[in-house]
């Protein structure tokens, strides 16, 4: 990939980031992510399909509930919306190509300021900026991993979009949804994401949950039918999150989403986009969410970040915990990777990280963490006794009556007879410490 600049270079102090290996002291080099290195039959680039996100990296300036963001972005200087949007896109593609990121993602409103546009005006703005994005994609080879619609920031969506109790508001959201799907298809987006923004409730006293969930299903069916009619063959992803902004989000976690998709006949078109920090907010591990998704044939994509052990909100920090990355990549590799998606950095530098180069450092660290996790997970799976030890715990289900049981061929009467004959079964250690030590050994 070669660096693609616009009229101006926004990050002149940083060149293209290359792999230099773990002995390099260059902070602007990958220590582990070597895109052409083959691990378990595929290159790292093919396994991980890294993606940069527009919202945290080029829009959010570090604001928090106590004050505006201190991060200063030169691409915000132009006074008209179109020039700001093209400057931001120049900066974004400079960044993607300097980072060697094969993909990017956006919300419709990240691309160009919505201001108080009508549906028609916003459609025209999106036409303008997606024409420009097309040129940038062609010039760089960077592709659109997924597009989505921001149906949660504008105050009109305070009660939700697809689950809004007021049909005219739901329809207004539908108009924006259609524009975002059109923009994604125009840019050959490989997937389309639904993160449930304000699809949830704050108080059940004023909420008809069944009506809202029936509407959510109808909303998703409508979107899918429209996109398919336009020739879109990619996946739709639901991104689970248990809370924030609403007290209770309907797409709580992967298991909840799996039940919902099956109930409403959406399971063939929709998969999940699992975000690390959303998993931890649901009191799960990232690894747990990946496993539930993999076992239900739903493992579509990943929003990479991390939470904070002491805070209970979506801090969206860059991933840096190797032990957790290894545990997650064990599931990822055994599942054969992602179905259609990639590893998107839904992560932001800290409010106090105000140098322009800091966003490079965040992504380098995150990419290296995943790369390192991938290498180590593959070694554990191929060199250690990990799989064998895990299989041993279930050995008694591999043949005889145990196998018959799994296959549903044993009645409770027969089970009781076997159980009575067994007497007091022998004690089987779970050996968790041994498994943990194996992980450590390979790190
Ligand atoms: C918010 C979500 C959001 C989605 C895209 O918590 O992670 O950023 O990824 O709408
Ligand atoms: Ni996300
Ligand atoms: Ni999030």
TrEMBL record:
Binds 2 magnesium ions per subunit. InterPro entries: Xyl_isomerase-like_sf, Xylose_isom_bac, Xylose_isomerase. It catalyses: alpha-D-xylose = alpha-D-xylulofuranose. The keyword Cytoplasm applies. It is found in: Cytoplasm. GO terms for molecular function: xylose isomerase activity. Its main location: cytoplasm. Keywords: Carbohydrate metabolism, Cytoplasm, Isomerase, Magnesium, Metal-binding, Xylose metabolism. Its EC number is 5.3.1.5. PROSITE patterns: XYLOSE_ISOMERASE. The active site is at residues 107, 110. Mg(2+) 1 binds at residues 239, 275, 303, 346. Its cofactor is Mg(2+). Mg(2+) 2 binds at residues 275, 278, 314, 316. Homotetramer. Belongs to the xylose isomerase family. PANTHER family: PTHR48408, XYLOSE ISOMERASE. This is Xylose isomerase. It comes from Catenovulum adriaticum.
């Amino acid at each position: 990939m070669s660096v693609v600049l616009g009229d101006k270079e926004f990050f002149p102090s940083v060149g293209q980031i290359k792999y230099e290996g773990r002995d390099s002291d260059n902070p602007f080099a990958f220590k582990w992510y070597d895109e052409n290195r083959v691990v378990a039959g595929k290159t790292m680039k093919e396994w991980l399909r890294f993606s940069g996100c527009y919202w945290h990296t080029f829009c959010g300036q570090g604001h928090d509930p106590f004050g505006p963001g201190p991060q200063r972005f030169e691409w915000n200087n132009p006074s008209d919306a179109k020039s700001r949007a093209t400057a931001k896109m120049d900066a974004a593609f400079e960044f993607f190509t300097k980072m060697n990121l094969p993909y990017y993602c956006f919300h419709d409103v990240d691309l160009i300021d919505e201001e108080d546009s009508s549906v028609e005006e916003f459609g025209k703005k999106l036409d303008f900026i997606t024409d420009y994005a097309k040129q940038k994609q062609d010039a760089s080879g960077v592709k659109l991993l997924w597009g989505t619609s921001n149906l949660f920031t504008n105050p009109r969506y305070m009660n939700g979009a697809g689950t809004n109790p007021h049909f005219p508001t739901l329809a207004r959201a539908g108009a924006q949804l259609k524009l975002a799907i059109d923009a994604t298809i125009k840019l050959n987006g490989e997937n389309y994401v639904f993160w449930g923004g304000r699809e949830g409730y704050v108080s059940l006293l004023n909420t008809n949950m069944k009506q809202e969930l029936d509407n959510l299903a109808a909303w998703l069916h409508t979107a899918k039918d429209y996109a398919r009619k336009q020739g879109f063959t990619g996946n739709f992803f639901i991104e689970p999150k248990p809370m924030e902004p609403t007290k209770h989000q309907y797409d709580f976690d992967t298991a909840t989403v799996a039940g919902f998709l099956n109930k409403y006949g959406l399971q063939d078109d929709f998969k999940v986009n699992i975000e690390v920090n959303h998993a931890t907010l649901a009191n799960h591990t990232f690894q747990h969410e990946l496993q539930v998704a993999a076992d239900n044939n739903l493992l579509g994509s990943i929003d990479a970040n991390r939470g904070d052990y002491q805070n209970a909100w979506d801090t969206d920090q860059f991933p840096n915990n190797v032990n957790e990355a290894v545990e997650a990549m064990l599931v990822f590799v055994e599942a054969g990777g992602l179905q259609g998606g990639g590893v998107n950095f839904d992560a932001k530098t800290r409010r106090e990280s105000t140098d322009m180069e800091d966003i490079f450092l965040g992504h380098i660290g995150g990419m290296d963490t995943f790369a390192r996790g991938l290498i180590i997970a593959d070694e554990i799976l191929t060199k250690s006794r990990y799989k064998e030890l895990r299989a041993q715990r279930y050995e008694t289900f591999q043949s005889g009556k145990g196998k018959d049981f799994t296959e549903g061929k044993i009645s409770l009467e027969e089970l009781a007879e076997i159980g009575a004959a067994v007497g007091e079964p022998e004690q089987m250690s779970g050996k968790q410490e041994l498994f943990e030590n194996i992980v450590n050994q390979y790190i």
